[in-house]
Amino acid sequence: MATTTVKAYGTTAPTEDLKPLDIERRAVGADDVKIDITYSGVCHSDIHTARNEWHGSTYPVVPGHEIIGRVVEVGNGVSRHKVGDLVGVGCLVDSCQTCSACEKDLEQFCENGATFTYNSPDKHLEGKQTYGGYSTSVVVDEKFVLRIPENLDEAATAPLLCAGVTTWSPLRHWNVKKGDKVGVVGLGGLGHMGVKFANALGAHVVMITTSPEKGKDAQRLGAHEVLISKDEDDMKKHQNSFDFILNTIPVGHEMDPYLGLLKIDSTMVLVGAVEPLKPFHGGNIIGGRKRIAGSLIGGIKETQEMLDFCGEHNITSDIELINMQDINTAYDRITSNDVKYRFVIDMKSLK
Ligand code: NAP
Ligand code: ZN
What we know:
Bound molecules: NADP nicotinamide-adenine-dinucleotide phosphate, zinc ion
CATH class of the largest domain: Alpha Beta
Structural class: alpha/beta
Pfam family, one: ADH_zinc_N
GO molecular function: alcohol dehydrogenase (NADP+) activity; zinc ion binding
Distance between the termini: 25 Å
Cofactor: Zn(2+)
Keywords: Metal-binding, Oxidoreductase, Zinc
Family: Belongs to the zinc-containing alcohol dehydrogenase family.
CATH architecture of the largest domain: Alpha-Beta Complex
């Protein structure tokens, strides 16, 4: 198949910095949309993958699954998008479309293996893998291309494609509603969207953080209370009181302190720690019939619903815009817990 060479940023080994690379994009097929990328968000998952922290990375890795751009070409079978449209691509670029998960609009759990935006085998280019949004353009099947509300700030919508849907989906699935006491653990890229969404859904939102200095920001973002997880007295005051907790901590951690916060029959959903957790005491879920659950991004239909909700409620991410060349510093700042609250790359800097 004919391909086009485009500029990208990626890494060739877990311990290497990201640097300029050339990658191939497929020619536009009948169902494809070609997108000129304008902004690309920086997710902590990009770092886990670049540094092989989840042990599945194939190099080179070109991260980026919070992609915003304009359609510059469409295949002759494309009906959902046209040249000039503002569109987005999140963590998924393909799935089988026929298994029971895909039929339920849960493409992220495709039983035949979803194709993720980066570091997945590429169905279109034999022997190759997918490369993400730290690049100047991308070609994607139209079914995996989202419509972006034009009233929103373009750069600040990029993080909705991953951080947005990853927090929206569990809040919706567990039916968070007006008046529920909802805890969001970790004020980073995901957490700050979790706070905004839980607030917009009418919940009483408590930011649960290790960083007291983030308290003011948490309130500005929509938290009604701030709970410092390292403060044992404060944690005791909130014992057995939460209807729902969304936990975005990016690494394995002690679960017991958070489980103690849940009410009878309520749930803590993990989205961050894709790795072994510290052992926790069974009594902390047996007493109170509490639940621990997990959640992975969201399907395409749900992602579009989230974007439309953001358009109606004027919700975007709080971002720091950076140039592509600043990516290695940005990674170090994220891992040292110094991001307010999502980095977004201005892709003009790579063109
Ligand atoms: P992030 O911006 O780095 O935010 C993580 C936050 O967690 C930090 O700001 C910090 O908040 C808190 N934190 C960090 N280390 C901690 C520790 N050791 N103990 C307690 N709290 C800690 O990361 P992100 O982009 O939001 O991503 C969060 C995690 O979700 C990552 O692991 C990412 O790979 C994963 N993820 C999962 C999905 C999914 O579909 N399930 C999708 C996207 C990302 P405070 O300072 O407030 O404590
Ligand atoms: Zn992500």
